[in-house]
């Protein structure tokens, strides 16, 4: 039998390579490279299949049909020539054996078209050619055979190379190839695309409705807990809000006890994935999806979804979480503005009271009763000093501290007005509590504040009680004196000053300063040596003139302490062994410290 191909069938459609090139370019630009690649491969596969069916009218031998493959390619203008190696052997049981079936296509028309339209390629481009060869061989052997192009002329190689294997063998090497070869019609692809778009639209509608519901909560001035409940009802996912110090603020869908038991049972935390600032992590037996909440460009809190099972997470949950975090930020901002407005009003009233800017005390009293129905005497004044524990030069936002202290006092049922005076926070307590109960509540509040501000040291002075608001200036001075008393305790009552308090209350301040200058002389100079000697004197006197204790406190030798004491006695012309003299000097120094005239690091 003459193994040559007859003339073109009269039913064949003839198209020039340039015409096909334009069609190919239009497919890539309108369908995208990946879909066009699949389409062209399938198009070529159908052509190869049809060609074999046409040839079977003349040839019945499998060997003849395989032998005609190169001639088919060249006569159809696919390539100028083909070089092939290896052999496809069909065993008796019908299985195929591929023995290094490799080959080369020379002058591929499709590679040339690709370079002409798109320039040099980063991947093989003979999609139609590979499809044609695959369809041709698959039809001959009635098996799924895949001709894979390994190198392409469009990539800059001299010729295109290919390798032939049964499809299953290729899948064993690269399972992803099934996405490229899956036999979907255009209709099926469009249907899948439609279903995907419908699902995306449904998800977008759900997100829009969810966001609208949350926004409506804000517009209607619903509480923050109502916002969380709305989110939980929509998603049925437990929600947790922690502040920047990881302290629990609110929970919905899970109790505080349940959450703490689940998270405290294990210290093991591992991040599963992260997208921007949203983190999905495993904590013990649960999973947590969390995102930050910012207020005034600072991290304020963290909003989290809790999953008891890993498979409960949906790919779109992060969108719902981030929207909840945005609405939560609005809630916190609204609350902050409300708090600041109230505190500014309180601050204004207290400033007018301290500076006596009122026509009558009844005017202030009436305004205070609008702020609180529980406005009773006795009253107390507080002075609060805030300082950095480590870096003394680090600035402290006193107004932010005022807001924090105000909210903490409210939490512990301490009714108060707060203001800032000479970089100190001053407070008027008006809740009519007993002094012992008040100090106990302040101590609890101070513990809470320090947990949130571990780098800040607080010193609180508490005045004696008073019943008339006109006496506030006098009692603020008491509180200031108590706060400045050099003692280790953090809350100091004015009564603890003892004779020092009586001395300051009944002695003219200017007289005290003049007396101190006369008695202490050059020790009050601002140079480092004088400060060092004055501090040595104060430490010596506060330790009851015990040299060994003073030596330990100042980390000096006994000889060094004795030298300084002699030097101090020469400067002051005083005998420090005299009990009256020592007590008098200690009273003067502590008076200056309490008045703020002496400060030590």
UniProtKB/TrEMBL annotation:
<dbReference type="Pfam" id="PF17853">
    <property type="entry name" value="GGDEF_2"/>
</dbReference>
<dbReference type="Pfam" id="PF13556">
    <property type="entry name" value="HTH_30"/>
</dbReference>
<dbReference type="InterPro" id="IPR010523">
    <property type="entry name" value="XylR_N"/>
</dbReference>
<dbReference type="InterPro" id="IPR042070">
    <property type="entry name" value="PucR_C-HTH_sf"/>
</dbReference>
<dbReference type="Pfam" id="PF06505">
    <property type="entry name" value="XylR_N"/>
</dbReference>
<dbReference type="InterPro" id="IPR041522">
    <property type="entry name" value="CdaR_GGDEF"/>
</dbReference>
<comment type="similarity">
    <text>Belongs to the CdaR family.</text>
</comment>
<dbReference type="InterPro" id="IPR024096">
    <property type="entry name" value="NO_sig/Golgi_transp_ligand-bd"/>
</dbReference>
<dbReference type="Pfam" id="PF02830">
    <property type="entry name" value="V4R"/>
</dbReference>
<dbReference type="InterPro" id="IPR004096">
    <property type="entry name" value="V4R"/>
</dbReference>
<dbReference type="InterPro" id="IPR051448">
    <property type="entry name" value="CdaR-like_regulators"/>
</dbReference>
<feature type="domain" description="4-vinyl reductase 4VR">
    <location>
        <begin position="104"/>
        <end position="166"/>
    </location>
</feature>
<dbReference type="InterPro" id="IPR025736">
    <property type="entry name" value="PucR_C-HTH_dom"/>
</dbReference>
<protein>
    <recommendedName>
        <fullName>4-vinyl reductase 4VR domain-containing protein</fullName>
    </recommendedName>
</protein>
């Amino acid at each position: 039998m003459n193994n040559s191909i007859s003339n073109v069938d009269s039913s064949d459609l003839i198209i020039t390579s340039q015409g096909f090139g334009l069609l190919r370019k239009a497919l890539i630009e309108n369908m995208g490279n990946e879909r066009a690649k699949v389409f062209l491969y399938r198009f070529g596969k159908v052509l190869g299949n049809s060609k074999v069916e046409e040839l079977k009218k003349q040839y019945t031998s499998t060997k003849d049909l395989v032998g005609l493959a190169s001639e088919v390619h060249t006569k159809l203008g696919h390539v100028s020539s083909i070089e092939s190696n290896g052999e496809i052997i069909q065993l008796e049981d019908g299985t195929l054996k591929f023995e290094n079936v490799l080959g080369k296509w020379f002058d591929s028309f499709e590679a040339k078209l690709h370079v002409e339209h798109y320039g040099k390629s980063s991947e093989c481009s003979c999609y139609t050619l590979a499809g044609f060869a695959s369809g041709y061989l698959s039809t001959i052997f009635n098996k799924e055979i895949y001709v894979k192009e390994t190198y392409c002329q469009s990539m800059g190689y001299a010729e295109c190379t290919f390798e032939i294997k049964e499809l299953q063998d290729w899948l064993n090497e690269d399972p992803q190839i099934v996405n490229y070869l899956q036999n979907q019609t255009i209709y099926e692809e469009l249907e899948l695309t439609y279903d995907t778009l419908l699902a995306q639209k449904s998800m977008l509608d759900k997100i829009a409705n969810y966001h609208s519901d949350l926004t409506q909560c804000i517009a209607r001035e619903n509480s923050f807990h109502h916002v969380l409940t709305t989110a939980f009802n929509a998603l049925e996912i437990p929600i947790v809000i922690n502040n920047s110090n990881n302290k629990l603020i609110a929970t919905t869908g899970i109790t505080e006890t349940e959450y703490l038991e689940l998270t405290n049972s294990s210290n093991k935390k591992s991040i599963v994935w992260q997208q921007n600032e949203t983190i999905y992590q495993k904590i013990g037996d649960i999973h947590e999806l969390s995102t930050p909440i910012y207020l005034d460009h600072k991290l304020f809190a963290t909003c989290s979804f809790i999953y008891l099972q890993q498979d409960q997470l949906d790919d779109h949950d992060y969108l719902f979480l981030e929207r909840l975090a945005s609405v939560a930020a609005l809630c916190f901002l609204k609350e902050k503005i409300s708090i600041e407005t109230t505190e500014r009003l309180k601050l204004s009233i207290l400033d007018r009271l301290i500076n006596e800017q009122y026509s009558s005390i009844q005017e202030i009293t009436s305004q205070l009763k609008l702020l609180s129905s529980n406005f009773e005497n006795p009253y107390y004044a507080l002075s609060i000093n805030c300082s950095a524990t480590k870096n003394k030069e680090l600035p402290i936002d006193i107004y932010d501290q005022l807001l924090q202290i105000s909210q903490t006092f409210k939490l512990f049922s301490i009714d108060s007005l707060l203001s800032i005076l000479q970089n100190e926070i001053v407070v008027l307590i008006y809740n009519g509590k007993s002094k012992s109960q008040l100090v106990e509540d302040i101590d609890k509040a101070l513990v809470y504040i320090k947990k949130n501000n571990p780098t800040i040291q607080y010193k609180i002075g508490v005045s004696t009680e008073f019943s008339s608001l006109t006496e506030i200036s006098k009692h603020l001075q008491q509180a200031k004196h108590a706060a400045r008393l050099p003692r280790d305790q953090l809350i100091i009552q004015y009564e603890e000053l003892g004779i020092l308090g009586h001395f300051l209350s009944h002695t003219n301040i200017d007289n005290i300063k003049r007396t101190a200058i006369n008695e202490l002389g050059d020790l009050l100079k601002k140079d480092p040596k004088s400060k060092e000697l004055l501090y040595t004197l104060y430490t010596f006197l506060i330790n009851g003139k015990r040299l060994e204790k003073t030596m330990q406190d100042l980390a000096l030798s006994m000889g060094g302490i004795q030298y300084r004491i002699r030097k101090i006695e020469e400067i002051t012309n005083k005998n420090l062994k005299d009990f009256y003299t020592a007590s008098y000097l200690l009273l003067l120094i502590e008076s200056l410290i309490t008045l703020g005239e002496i400060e030590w690091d």
